[in-house]
Amino acid sequence: MSAREIVVDLRLQELTLLEDGRVRCAFPVSSAANGPGEQMGSGCTPRGLHVARMLIGHGLPSGSVFVARRATGEVYSDQLGLQYPGRDWMLSRIVWLQGCEPERNRFGDVDTLRRFIYIHGCPDTEPMGTPASRGCIRMRNDDIIALFDQLAPGISVRIHE
């Protein structure tokens, strides 16, 4: 059985899926505009070792809209984007992260799970390769679907600078 791991490099703004230590695929991402950090309410992307606690959205169409981790039945369009300007769109798939390091990204005021930090799709008009999110790790819709289809709950996710 092979070992898979996700590595997110905040400096390069890149997510890599490794299998047995070898690159299986890599994608551009967009992490937090506020930079790295673990504090509740900071709007920062947490660092350290995490696991994928839940995988949400299997089988839904590309561009499916989520609110509070639930599919609304809508599919994102430019018109929908204009109707709700400023919304932090979560589209296609959600990988909900849980921290593994007590006092760094788990428990108390630094708990990644309670901060609702995800890897998720976003409108394809959003920039990749530059920090612009509100704390989560954003990906293109085709990319998050391609990644998601290779994951199982519990896969490790290492986020570093």
TrEMBL record:
GO terms for cellular component: extracellular region. InterPro entries: LD-transpeptidase, LD_TPept_cat_dom, Transpep_catalytic_dom. Pfam families: YkuD. Residues 4-160 form the L,D-TPase catalytic domain. SUPFAM superfamilies: L,D-transpeptidase catalytic domain-like. GO terms for molecular function: glycosyltransferase activity; peptidoglycan L,D-transpeptidase activity. CDD domains: YkuD_like. The active site is at H120, C136. One of its GO terms (biological process) is peptidoglycan-protein cross-linking. Pathway: Cell wall biogenesis; peptidoglycan biosynthesis. Gene3D superfamilies: L,D-transpeptidase catalytic domain-like. Keywords: Cell shape, Cell wall biogenesis/degradation, Glycosyltransferase, Hydrolase, Peptidoglycan synthesis, Transferase. Belongs to the YkuD family. PANTHER family: L,D-TRANSPEPTIDASE (PTHR30582), L,D-TRANSPEPTIDASE ERFK_SRFK-RELATED (PTHR30582:SF24). This is L,D-transpeptidase.
